[in-house]
């Protein structure tokens, strides 16, 4: 969908894409690292004034989040996911399960789950079901099969994405994480394993990008919503 009048708001230090909500169903999302609390607050204020949907800031450190919330009322901060959110959405008819292979993958899974919930998707979380104990993922097979999409978060060799991809019929979005010992190469091994999975059709996002996985689920949900 093309924005009939592309709208850019120049704040001096940032140029906001105000037309993104019209094109993609969500306002522009703020990436927190590298920005001051004052800059995040100014961007959030402008987005809230010029859009109607959820306003999110990702990867925000706790001290920065506290400073932003002191300047922009009505927001909520989730420390585990490091997500700041204003005007969370609800009631979208699209279910997504966020599956984490191990406890060390939990922060990335938390980001995926928090973003997906903030944009209104129905989220369920499944933790610590890595392939070293295969019965764990088999125990939740029916739960995963009932979803509209599954986000799989895994480090080490990234094998969980292939296992889930072979068990369910719905779209699988794989997130490689930087967890693992030396040859895991800070997530590169899991990334390459997921990209070369023999379970056909898996979508793979960037290393540690829980946010990217949630946005992929949003795009799937958006297509279904437009068709309805």
Automatic annotation (TrEMBL):
Residues 96-226 form the PurE domain. Pfam families: AIRC. Signal peptide: none annotated. SUPFAM superfamilies: N5-CAIR mutase (phosphoribosylaminoimidazole carboxylase, PurE). GO terms for molecular function: hydrolase activity. Gene3D superfamilies: 3.40.50.1970. PANTHER family: PHOSPHORIBOSYLAMINOIMIDAZOLE CARBOXYLASE-RELATED, SLL1489 PROTEIN. This is 1-(5-phosphoribosyl)-5-amino-4-imidazole-carboxylate (AIR) carboxylase. It comes from Catenulispora acidiphila (strain DSM 44928 / JCM 14897 / NBRC 102108 / NRRL B-24433 / ID139908). The lineage of its organism: Bacteria, Bacillati, Actinomycetota, Actinomycetes, Catenulisporales.
């Amino acid at each position: 969908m093309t924005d009939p009048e592309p709208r850019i708001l120049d704040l001096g230090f940032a140029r906001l894409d105000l037309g993104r909500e019209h094109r993609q169903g969500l306002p522009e999302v703020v990436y927190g690292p590298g920005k001051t609390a004052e800059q995040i607050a100014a961007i959030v204020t402008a987005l809230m004034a010029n859009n109607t949907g959820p306003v999110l800031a990702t990867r925000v450190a706790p001290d920065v989040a506290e400073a932003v919330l002191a300047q922009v009322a009505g927001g909520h901060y989730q420390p585990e996911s490091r997500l700041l959110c204003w005007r969370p959405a609800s009631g979208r008819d699209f279910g997504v399960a966020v599956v984490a292979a191990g406890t060390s993958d939990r922060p990335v899974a938390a980001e995926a789950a928090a973003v997906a919930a903030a944009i209104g998707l129905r989220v369920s979380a499944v933790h610590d079901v890595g392939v070293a104990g295969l019965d764990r993922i088999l125990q939740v097979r029916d739960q995963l099969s009932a979803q509209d999409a599954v986000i799989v978060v895994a480090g080490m060799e990234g094998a969980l994405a292939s296992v889930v991809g072979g068990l369910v019929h719905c779209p699988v979005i794989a997130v490689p994480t930087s967890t693992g010992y030396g040859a895991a190469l800070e997530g590169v091994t899991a990334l390459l394993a997921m990209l070369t999975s023999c379970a056909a059709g898996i979508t793979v996002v960037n290393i540690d990008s829980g946010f990217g996985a949630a946005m992929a689920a949003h795009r799937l949900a958006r297509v279904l919503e437009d068709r309805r």
